[in-house]
Amino acid sequence: xxxxxxxxxxxxxxxxxxxxxxxxxxxxxxxxxxxxxxxxxxxxxxxxxxxxxxxxxxxxxxxxxxxxxxxxxxxxxxxxxx
Length: 82
Hints:
By secondary structure, this protein is mainly α.
């Protein structure tokens, strides 16, 4: 479950911490318990990053749809004047 602290993390913070977790896992030298804790933390951080990216995609899609709607309305207005 995502903690409130994770919800407050910005994308860059979560990404940077995730990179650190991956590096630590790849370096090895940790106990099984430490590795599992790192893996779990990495999963939570990946979820935080995914939520940020999904939110950014939704905002971009909405902005593009709004722009397309405005252009279509402008095209209709141009056609009425003819």
